[in-house]
């Protein structure tokens, strides 16, 4: 096919896309000349839903109109604001409504989960995580160890085999088996931020439970990226952030999942605050804590309404589709990106390689490109020619075509800009 044929083929793909109208629900950043940029960093900060402003203004209006009485009289009463997220979040996470709650920031929530699920005792003292985990998670895990008077040797990191980039499930299972009754908690990133690898959560969780440990997952790069079944997979606890694939704005509220089987336990350690107290008697302000019989028991404070208003606007869009539908498009988009990279790699004999797993089932939408030589030059070129991508020192470009707002046309434009670079450098 010549270029014109390819362009019209790609246009057709976008016209046929059953989710195409979602793109219009977002502000797409533009360059100085007013052209839309090819935005491929939804894995870092999702785009702004156009409705976010309306939701935010409604809360500002209600605050102006009611003052403190907005807690009860606002259109979405603030006292129960967190509960307006449970249904949507439950669908995205594959959970029961009672198992999820939106609260705090992600790293704060990881700590709160560890208060409950990292309870080192006797020889069961080990924490398990990927070697190339997001740094904040490693800081959190190591500081938890120190908090319990344990040294760093209790943090067990998983590394790929020599010459490989992804972790093999069989190797993870073997490590879990080897750790056996020394493993207290596993806290892997369900989708690794660097390689985009999507771990086999169900299998790994099962193995972790079989050795008597707790299975926690950091869903920062998984939530809103691909379908999850946290309840069915028997995950003990999980946390995510809402500002990546869930498009809820910089620093947007995090959320947690606590499997229902832990809700009624009275001996589970938990840091407590009034928003975790039974809602029936919360405002009678009793001296003693009576937990909510749900994941809400882990809440500490009243909700940050203004930032959560944007989260609500974003979840309204997720409510209009499903993670399954998004995934169908996502598999096609990422396959097309892979095809482009393979084609250009051959044509220009680049030294790059794709770090992300080849098997689409073992990755989300992101592809990470390892470029030992001209990486930075290519990155700077595409960045200054209308592509927003992400550079990880020293040699990786991460590209995340997000099914909710990216198009095949976006990727076709990326291709042309990359060709321009290789034709001139
Ligand atoms: C993005 C990300 C974070 C960020 O943490 P915050 O507490 O939201 O600032 C932490 N962990 C992982 C795995 C992430 O991808």
Give the integer mean of the pLDDT values: 97
Helix content: 25-40%
Q: Please, what is the CATH homologous superfamily of the largest domain?
A: Type I PLP-dependent aspartate aminotransferase-like (Major domain)
* Low-confidence region ranges: none
Radius of gyration: 23 Å
Largest sheet: 7 strands, mixed
What's the CATH architecture of the largest domain? 3-Layer(aba) Sandwich
Q: Enumerate how many helices there are, as a single number.
A: 12
Query: Main sheet: which strands, in order across?
Result: 2-8-7-6-5-3-4
- Quote the CATH topology of the largest domain: Aspartate Aminotransferase, domain 2
Task: Please give the domain count.
Answer: 2
Shape: globular
Beta-strand share of residues: 5-15%
**Element pattern in H and E:** HEHHHEHEHEHEHEEEHHEEHEEEH
Name the ligand types: pyridoxal-5'-phosphate
Q: What's the total number of strands?
A: 13
Highest-level CATH class of the largest domain: Alpha Beta
């Amino acid at each position: 096919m010549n270029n014109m044929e390819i362009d019209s083929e790609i246009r057709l793909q976008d016209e046929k896309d059953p989710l195409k109208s979602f793109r219009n629900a977002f502000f797409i950043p533009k360059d100085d000349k007013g052209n839309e940029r090819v935005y491929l960093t939804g894995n870092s900060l999702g785009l702004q839903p156009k409705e976010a402003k309306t939701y935010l203004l409604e809360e500002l209006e209600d605050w102006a109109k009611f003052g403190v009485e907005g807690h009860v009289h606002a259109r979405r009463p603030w006292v129960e604001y967190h509960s307006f997220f449970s249904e949507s979040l439950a669908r995205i996470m594959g959970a029961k409504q009672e198992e999820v709650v939106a609260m705090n920031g992600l790293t704060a929530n990881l700590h709160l989960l560890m208060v409950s699920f990292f309870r080192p005792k006797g020889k069961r003292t080990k924490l398990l995580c990927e070697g190339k985990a997001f740094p904040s998670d490693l800081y959190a895990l190591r500081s938890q160890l120190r908090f319990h008077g344990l040294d760093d040797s209790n943090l067990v990191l998983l590394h790929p085999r020599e010459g490989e980039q992804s972790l093999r499930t069989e190797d993870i299972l073997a490590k879990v088996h080897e750790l056996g009754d020394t493993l207290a908690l596993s806290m892997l990133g369900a989708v690794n931020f660097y390689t985009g690898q999507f771990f086999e959560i169900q299998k790994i969780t099962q193995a972790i439970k079989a050795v008597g440990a707790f299975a926690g997952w950091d869903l920062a790069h998984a939530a809103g990226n691909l379908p999850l079944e946290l309840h069915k997979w028997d995950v003990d606890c999980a946390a995510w952030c809402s500002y990546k694939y869930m498009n809820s704005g910089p620093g947007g509220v995090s959320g947690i999942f606590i499997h229902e089987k832990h809700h009624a336990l009275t001996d589970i350690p938990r840091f407590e605050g009034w928003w975790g107290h039974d809602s029936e008697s919360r405002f009678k302000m009793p001296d003693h804590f009576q937990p909510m019989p749900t994941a809400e028991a882990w809440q500490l404070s009243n909700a940050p309404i203004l930032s959560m208003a944007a989260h609500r606007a974003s979840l309204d869009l997720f409510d209009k589709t499903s993670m399954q539908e998004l995934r169908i498009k996502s598999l096609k988009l990422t396959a097309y990106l892979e095809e482009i990279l393979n084609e250009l790699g051959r044509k220009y004999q680049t030294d790059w390689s794709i770090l992300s797993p080849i098997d689409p089932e073992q990755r989300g939408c992101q592809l990470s490109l390892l470029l030992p030589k001209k990486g930075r030059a290519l990155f700077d070129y595409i960045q200054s020619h209308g592509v927003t991508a992400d550079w990880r020192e020293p040699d990786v470009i991460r590209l995340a075509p997000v099914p909710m707002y990216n198009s095949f046309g976006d990727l076709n434009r990326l291709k042309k800009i990359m060709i321009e670079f290789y034709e001139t450098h």
